[in-house]
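Can't attach files on this board, so I'm pasting raw text. These are the components:
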Amino acid sequence: MNWADTIIQGILLGGLYALFAAGLSLVFGIMRLVNLAHGDLIVLAAFLILLLVTALGLNPFVATIVALPIMFGIGWALQYLVLNRTLGDDILPPLLVTFGLSVVIQNGLLEGFSADSRRISAGSLETASIQVGPFSIGTMPLLTFLSAVAVIVALNAVFYRTSLGRAFRATSDDRVTAGLMGIRSERIFATATGIAMMVVTIASLYLGTRANFDPTQGPARLIYAFEAVIIGGLGSFWGTLAGGIIMGVAQTLGAAINPEWQILAGHIAFLLVLLVRPRGLFPRAVD
Amino acid sequence: MTDHVFPNWTVSTRTRGTSFATLLIAGAIVLAFVAPFFAPRAVIQDLFFILTMLVLAQCWNLLAGYAGLVSVGQQAFVGFGAYAMFAAVSLLGIDPLIAIAVGGLAALILSVPTAFFVFRLHGAYFAIGTWVIAEVVRLSLAQWKALGGGTGTSLPSGATRDMFGVRLVADLLHVRGPQATDIFCYWLALILAILTIGFIYRLLRSKQGLGLAAVRDNREAARSVGVDPLWTKSLVYLVAAFVTGLAGALIYVQKARISPDAAFSVPDWTAYVIFIVVIGGIGTIEGPIVGVIIFYVLQNLLADYGTIYLLFLGLLGILIMLFAPRGLWGLFADRSGIQLFPIRRILAAKTLTRHDTGGA
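---
Top answer:
Structure tokens for the assembled complex are below.
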């Protein structure tokens, strides 16, 4: 077995997990909300892309660009109409409402698309690879990883260099004072969830083209995303990328030893980090 | 002047209809115990299902509604309790009745290291942390080849028929083996439900219960008067794990067949339970009782529709959480002032003899 090769595959897989996690990290950083339906929204976006590809005959990448504004709208409306009502000191309403939403999306997809596993075809890209030194690297995994880095760079740029980002940070620090300065937090939150759903859409493109997916896969994606966020430390986008990579490497190493240990190895890596560094590796937010 | 006479205050938890409620509960318990003498087998099986779901719901309600610990991973203890029971019966040849207790104890033991991990997380992160633990336990037990690995296994034939007490039930009611097992499991579930509700009721009326409510309502204020949230919450977490493990073991004695996916199912042991509590009314003992009845009725009405049923439950849960966060029982109790299990302390002045203290 080639260890270096396994680790490179793990790092590239980590890009996918970082994409799952970035949206979760953004929403948590701004409104301290954990969306238990996050994984199901990823699967929902994958079905949306699949629908666009099969119904309109679009290329998956074009379909993703079409899906981006749709998912932004869904995220915006979801936050503005439903989730904003649940925010407050009590942690129960947001948790239970998003848990309900998770069950609704999952069963809605089962009703609409049946339990069959699907795949978004990316044509010859699926099997293409490039040779880097002694290693053969798949083009799709590499694209996934580069997309993850691009998403993290973009999120950091929005968060720290734009007026929208300033509003995000201000609302996150002190919602009431930000309101006094003319920031309408309901709209800021809705925009944040909309952006998170755009990240989710990008993640779902790679979820759907790399492997089969079905309506029941959401909760597992939520768990991987959550583990990546916690490993990286709350409130740090680069930490989330690092967390994703650690999850990816742990899973591929586990799978290399015994295929049945893949998922378990990822969970154990998470528990070890929690044991040694309860606040994650690169914590920023105090929460 | 020093002859202040303070009014004689008393603290009472009685509400309107408390005596009536006591009678009602006693009547329901007696009726439930004698049900197997006249009810058909299908009814007993349904009642068994209702009672075990009620026990799980009461445990989750104690965690989330009173201790503020929103767990999405209680299936860890259902499954672990069930697997421990299976191991005790299949591998060690222990009587299933004792194996149920083994299941509860195993869940209790598992909850100690689990608590160590998940108590490092708060709020929503606690929720997903418990889920991760449940996944770890499920994936680990799927490796246990002696109990069927990922595909699962059945109890040895005859294990439940020869179970302690089943023969007695068969002779008493003149019924055959499998039916006697159902009836015996039903009685066990009934006893477990009564003990669970009784224990939670006593806990909530005790000093610790008051502390729990204080911690839930204001952690800092509770701390400042010497209530240690961590200790109380840990206690609740361990107790809930123990009872959930007992319920899990009991459910699988009756099912007699186990697999990791079924025993650690999120929809069966967590989603249903959460909806039962939310729809009935979180943070009350009556809520899960109302919730489990509604759940059962809905399940029978919509059973043929499969996924639509879960979709409907999810929507109902969301609507209730948004517009009536205290659930159906909360709506009823707010309007009527009736509590079947009164735990709220009400201050009442017994004597209001005013002594003239000369304006001092």
